[in-house]
Amino acid sequence: MAGQILSFRIAKPLAKKLDRLSQQTGRDTSVLAEEAVAEYVLRENARIEAIDAAVAAADKGDFISNEAMTNWLLSWGSDNELDPPPADIFKTPR
């Protein structure tokens, strides 16, 4: 399948690593580079979606206090590990 041609520069040390990987795997450098770009784009899109979801949750105004979160985290690995804390700070009173 023909795709869009993309041209960019990479540092020589990275180019050497890519060439070595190509030789070791018997795969073309352009295929390896395309796979790397695809993985990066998927990862970054997922990161942006997670940030957007967090911002939407924050806009609702329900938060967990630092004290509650700290107590929960400090309980990890102990005999009395706590459940995740519920929101205890609200934008609008409940």
Provide structural commentary.
The structure is a single chain. This protein has helices at residues 12-25, 29-60, 66-75; strands spanning 62-63, 89-90. A two-stranded antiparallel sheet has the order 1-2. The chain folds into 2 domains: 10-60, no CATH class; 61-94, no CATH class. The protein is mainly alpha-helical and 94 residues long. The chain has 3 helices and 2 strands, in the order ααβαβ.
- N-to-C terminal Cα separation, in Å? 57 Å
Whole-number mean pLDDT: 93
Order of strands in the sheet with most strands: 1-2
Please report which band the strand proportion falls in: under 5%, 5-15%, 15-25%, 25-35%, 35-45% or over 45%.
under 5%
Largest beta-sheet characterization: 2 strands, antiparallel
Helix fraction, binned, reads: 55-70%
Q: What structural class should be given to the helix and strand makeup?
A: mainly alpha
- What pattern of helices and strands is seen along the backbone? HHEHE
Annotation field: number of helices = 3
- As residue ranges, the low-confidence spans are none
Rounded to an integer, what's the Rg over CA atoms?
23 Å
Total beta-strand segments: 2
Instruction: Tell me the count of domains.
Output: 2
Q: What is the molecular shape?
A: elongated
Short summary:
With 94 residues, the chain is mainly α. It has 3 helices and 2 strands, in the order ααβαβ.
Topology:
Elements: H1 12-25, H2 29-60, E1 62-63, H3 66-75, E2 89-90
Antiparallel strand pairs: 1-2
Tags for this entry?
94 residues; mainly alpha; two-stranded antiparallel sheet; 3 helices; 2 strands; 60% helix; elongated
